[in-house]
Amino acid sequence: MASKLERILILAKTYPSPSAKHTETSCVAGINEHGQMRRLYPVPFRMIAENQQFQKWQWVTLRVEKSPADHRPESHKVFVDTIQIGETIPPDKGWVFRRPWWEKIPTFGSFDALEQARQTQHISLALLRPKRIERLEITAVDNPEWTDEELTKLSQEQSQGNLFSEDEQRKQLKQLEKMPFDFHYHYLCDTPDGERAYRHKVVDWEVAMLFRNCRKSHGDAWETPFRAKLEQDFAARDLTFMMGNIHRFQHQWLIISLIYPPKPAPGDAAQGCLF
């Protein structure tokens, strides 16, 4: 299948996971300049050159091709060595510059409607606006350390063909930290049968970094500021989830990005995103 250059606005980046083929990878999602959603995989983000590392709400130009092994319409293989980073869309003037892109993304008011769209339209990336956040569930993982198999993946030689320059291949990365906790949002949506409760796991890299920063600054008391941000600060905004499903189990969804614009004033149009 032919590859092509695309200009893509980055909207999501998940916390890395060990990969037998690529050492470690993140799932990256965004929207191209024609309004089409893109899932980019694999992206060994920590291993690429610093001048190619991008942020949310930053444009990148890169070569992609439709993934032959993943039939979800949004899924594309990315040629990491072609990444060129561009400008970041600022959150100025009430997110007016981001709003046009926000409005192009499929958006649902209930998880049931999103799942129905997956079944009928094959949607696998979309926005979900919950009616209300109930709570954040924090659960210690069964094994806070990597398994032997995972360690083998993480310690393998970073020989990725022409993916990295010689200097990048020699670069010694700090071993990826395993997240010792899982984070799930419990939230409510309106349905034709009334309010319904849902629970989904959050895998946004920025949430993982928030956890690490809170633990660094507050030690064993990290949970208080962490919850304050995710349960109070975000809930006071127009919190929206970017949802992505799992390739092998497509009925299972994850929150791959948190987007939290300020709530619109009465009579205002929907706001853009903070990220």
Question: What structural keywords apply?
Answer:
single chain; 275 residues; alpha+beta; OB fold (Dihydrolipoamide Acetyltransferase, E2P); five-stranded mixed β-barrel; four-stranded mixed sheet; 13 strands
What's the total count of β strands?
Answer: 13
What's the CATH topology name of the domain at 106-141 and 179-274? Answer: OB fold (Dihydrolipoamide Acetyltransferase, E2P)
CATH top level of the domain at 106-141 and 179-274 is Mainly Beta
Q: Could you name the ranges where pLDDT drops below 50 across 5 or more consecutive residues?
A: 158-166, 269-275
Model description:
The chain is of the alpha+beta class and 275 residues long. It has a domain at 106-141 and 179-274: OB fold (Dihydrolipoamide Acetyltransferase, E2P). The chain is built from seven helices and 13 strands. It has helices at 92-95, 99-102, 111-121, 148-155, 166-170, 205-218, 223-233, and strands spanning 4-13, 17-19, 23-32, 37-43, 58-66, 75-88, 107-108, 125-128, 132-140, 181-191, 194-201, 240-245, 253-259. The strands form three sheets. A five-stranded mixed barrel has the order 1-3-4-6-5. Helix 3 links the parallel strand 7 (107-108) and strand 8 (125-128).
Short recap of the structure:
The protein has 275 residues and is of the alpha+beta class. It has seven helices and 13 strands. Helix content is 21%, strand content 36%.
Task: List strands and helices in order, with pairings.
Elements: E1 4-13, E2 17-19, E3 23-32, E4 37-43, E5 58-66, E6 75-88, H1 92-95, H2 99-102, E7 107-108, H3 111-121, E8 125-128, E9 132-140, H4 148-155, H5 166-170, E10 181-191, E11 194-201, H6 205-218, H7 223-233, E12 240-245, E13 253-259
Parallel strand pairs: 4-6, 7-8
Antiparallel strand pairs: 1-3, 1-5, 2-3, 3-4, 5-6, 8-12, 9-10, 10-11, 12-13
